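User: Hi! I have a protein structure encoded as tokens and I'd like to know what sequence might fold into it. I'm fairly new to this, so please keep things simple.
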């Protein structure tokens, strides 16, 4: 998804005009001097009579005072009243600020059509921020029908004036190729233009293109360089990707300490996967001393954001009392969250908790349910457990054929217990039933292989 940037009202220098009357000019200058000395009450007092007599420069300046709350309570609606005459007189700064007030509904009802009107007026006078915001509005269909050609036009005009956010959005459109013809090389040109202005998002985008070989030869070292530029500016995703590169030695020498540094930076900003990886590093002592308490802290941060693998890790820590006191009820709660998101290990462990009545009331039917969910995903331990439930008739009708089938599957997928149990059960079964169960198992494995070609 392309991030869009919107600008808030800008602080413009107050512009004095030439006056026919020295008295009037003196009053305006008095206001200007007071403003520059941050005596906003005196500036307002000097400009108000001029504004009431129709002086648009004084009107604009009073609008600015109310817009920014300089010496008065901020009042966007009143600012709009004073900006409008100046905007109608062609003042580009007033036009932009009027557009922004309508665009964001600042003190007045949001009105995208009026915002579009005033951005257009300012953009026609070559205001690069207004041109950029028009590009956003046409791309998103705000106050106007979606029009990618118009969006591209305004982004280009703003980009040609050196506006980094426009250059970034223009590059995104060209790089994605979803709504305009894809052109990775022109996209890179505009990303570079924005990156040279220290636009961290553009630096990150350049890194991604080198990392993935998007329109260029894959270059991990170059990707790492650009990730670092963006990471140093606080780009959370760049920090995470740079940490991964140091973690595995991709494009840079493997360096657990540097990986830890950048995982920490991203994790502190709330990057859930970075928090998970920090937990792993603290738990395993990679780039730091083993600290299972800190591991649990970071797992919890990621788990609270809904990251499935972190939820499983938290559950396991509670289950086994690692870095925290053993708490089977808490383990069940976290296994449930991870299992509900499809984590096969969590589903198996949850089945085991129901099976043994640890942290929750024993319930063989629920145990079977969760073993089955994990078994369908190819979890060999769960498949063995499911076979055991069929063999014992716990939570399901006793069924040697189903038991043998799941033991067979479990063994074929690498679980030694499953293979052994298949041999044990098979000794007491009729040869025809063994043959039938074997066929069922092989058919299941063929279908599983088709649906999971990477396994």
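Assistant: Happy to help. Inverse folding works backwards from shape to sequence: for each of the 455 positions I chose a residue that suits the local structure. Here it is:
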């Amino acid at each position: 998804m392309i991030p869009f940037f919107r600008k808030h009202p800008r602080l413009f220098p107050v512009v004095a005009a030439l006056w026919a009357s020295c008295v009037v000019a003196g009053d305006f200058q008095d206001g200007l001097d007071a403003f520059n000395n941050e005596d906003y009450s005196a500036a307002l007092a000097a400009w108000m009579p001029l504004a009431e007599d129709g002086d648009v420069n004084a009107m604009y300046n009073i609008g600015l005072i109310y817009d920014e709350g300089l010496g008065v309570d901020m009042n966007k609606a009143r600012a709009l009243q004073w900006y409008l005459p100046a905007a109608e007189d062609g003042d580009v700064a007033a036009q932009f600020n009027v557009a922004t007030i309508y665009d964001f509904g600042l003190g007045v009802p949001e009105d995208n059509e009026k915002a579009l009107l005033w951005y257009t007026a300012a953009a026609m006078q070559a205001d690069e921020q207004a041109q950029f915001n028009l590009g956003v509005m046409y791309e998103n269909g705000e106050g106007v029908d979606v029009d990618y050609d118009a969006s591209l036009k305004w982004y280009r005009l703003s980009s040609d004036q050196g506006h980094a956010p426009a250059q970034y959005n223009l590059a995104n459109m060209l790089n994605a190729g979803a709504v305009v013809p894809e052109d990775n090389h022109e996209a890179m040109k505009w990303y570079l233009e924005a990156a040279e202005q220290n636009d961290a998002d553009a630096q990150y985008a350049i890194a991604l293109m080198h990392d993935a070989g998007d329109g260029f030869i894959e270059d991990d070292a170059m990707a790492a360089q650009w990730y670092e530029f963006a990471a140093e500016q606080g780009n959370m995703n760049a920090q995470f990707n740079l940490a991964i590169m140091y973690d595995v030695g991709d494009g840079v020498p493997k360096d657990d300490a540097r990986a830890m540094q950048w995982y920490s930076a991203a994790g502190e900003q709330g990057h859930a996967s970075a928090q998970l990886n920090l937990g792993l590093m603290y738990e395993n002592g990679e780039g730091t001393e083993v600290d299972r308490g800190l591991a649990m802290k970071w797992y919890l941060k990621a788990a609270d954001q809904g990251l499935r693998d972190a939820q499983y890790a938290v559950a396991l820590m509670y289950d086994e009392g690692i870095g925290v006191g053993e708490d089977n009820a808490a383990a069940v709660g976290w296994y449930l969250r991870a299992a509900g998101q499809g984590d096969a290990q969590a589903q198996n462990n949850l089945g085991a908790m129901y099976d043994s009545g640890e942290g929750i009331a024993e319930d063989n039917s629920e145990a079977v349910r969760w073993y089955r969910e994990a078994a369908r995903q190819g979890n060999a331990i769960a498949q063995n457990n499911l076979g055991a439930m069929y063999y014992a008739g716990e939570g399901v009708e006793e069924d040697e054929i189903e038991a043998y089938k799941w033991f067979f599957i479990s063994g074929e997928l690498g679980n030694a217990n499953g293979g052994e149990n298949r041999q044990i059960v098979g000794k007491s079964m009729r040869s025809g039933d063994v043959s039938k169960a074997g066929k069922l198992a092989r058919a299941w494995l063929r279908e599983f292989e088709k649906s999971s070609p990477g396994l």
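A useful reference point when you look it over: The radius of gyration is 33 Å. Feel free to ask if any position seems puzzling.
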